[in-house]
Design goal:
The protein is of the alpha/beta class. The chain folds into 2 domains: 238 residues, Phosphoenolpyruvate-binding domains (TIM Barrel, Alpha-Beta Barrel), CATH 3.20.20.60; 27 residues, no CATH class. 44% of the residues lie in helices and 13% in strands. It is built from 12 helices and 8 strands. Strands 1-2-3-4-5-6-7-8 form an 8-stranded parallel beta barrel, surrounded by 7 helices. It starts with a helix and ends in an 11-residue tail after the last helix. The model has no long low-confidence stretch (mean pLDDT 97). The chain binds 3-methyl-2-oxobutanoic acid. The site of 3-methyl-2-oxobutanoic acid has 11 residues, from strand 6.
Length: 271
């Protein structure tokens, strides 16, 4: 019996047990009630209410504009749809970087107003004080290293990070610092697979990869990418499981035709 199947509710302890048992962790993003309900019922381990909502829900080109209240709205909707999985809520840009007191206040607001189970924030050494403070208030924190989209204007591109020795060494150190600070897991985004393997093996907490190869303890994908709602984004790491764009396009075109031809509603579809 897998660790996942044995438990009624996924907690941060479940994830530790899964790592220890070598059972991979599945994580997907969601931003609303209806999709969260489907993903939870399907047996997903973690739903991330990602600040990628800024892109896929609001149409911004980066994750920077989304506000704390907007993240809270998405997280509240997700939490109403789930029964079993762990919900992680992204701390948005501008609500934790300035100091650890502000970070704690934002994390507390998220926990109080959403009913989510944990928060995620980007960064290594520079985020450690905030991680310690949030964790000591009893709030589980997930870290995020590698390509951290809130720093896109510092990086300049969405290319693979930590290919060079210095950046790889910093990432390894940052991962250990986050673990020591009390993080319960770390997302590794778009880094070389060999580096992700090394980091995953050096930690006792789980790593969740996106574009970081198959040796992370779990994987995460943005729902709009893996379901093919968003068809323009085609990085090498993305496996598209559906082409929802095509399916929705076909359905809506058929509906338009039916309305125009007076084929909808028919007699059995009226009162
Ligand atoms: O916001 C998000 O969707 C994320 C994932 C890419 C990990 O942080």
């Amino acid at each position: 019996m897998s660790v996942n199947k044995e438990i009624k509710k996924v907690t941060t302890n479940t994830l530790q047990k899964m790592k220890a048992a070598g059972e991979k962790i599945s994580m997907i993003t969601a931003y609303d009630f209806s999709f969260a309900k489907i993903f939870d019922a399907a047996g997903i381990d973690i739903i991330l209410v990602g600040d990628s909502a800024s892109n896929v829900m609001a149409g911004h080109t980066t994750t920077l504009p989304i506000t704390l209240d907007q993240m809270i709205y998405h997280a509240q909707s997700v939490v109403r749809g789930i029964d079993r999985c762990l919900v992680v809520v992204d701390m948005p840009f501008g609500y934790y970087q300035s100091n650890s007191d502000i970070a704690l206040a934002s994390a507390i607001k998220i926990m109080k107003e959403t009913g989510g189970h944990s928060v995620k924030l980007e960064g290594g050494e520079e985020a450690v004080d905030s991680v310690k403070k949030i964790v000591s208030a009893g709030i589980p924190v997930m870290g995020h290293l590698g390509l951290t989209p809130q720093s896109i204007y510092k990086f300049g591109t969405y290319n693979v990070r930590a290919k060079e020795i210095d950046e790889a060494a910093k990432l390894k150190k940052d991962a250990l610092l986050l673990q020591e600070a009390g993080a319960f897991a770390i997302v590794l985004e778009k880094i070389p697979a060999v580096l992700a393997k090394e980091v995953s093996e050096s930690l006792h907490i789980p790593t969740i990869g996106i574009g970081a190869g198959g040796n992370c303890d779990g994987q995460v994908l943005v729902m709009h990418d893996m379901l093919g709602i968003n068809t323009e984004f085609k990085p090498r790491f993305l496996r598209q499981y559906l082409n929802m764009y095509e399916q929705i396009d076909g359905a809506v075109k058929q509906y338009i035709k039916d309305v125009k031809r007076r084929n909808f509603p028919n007699e059995s579809e009226q009162y």
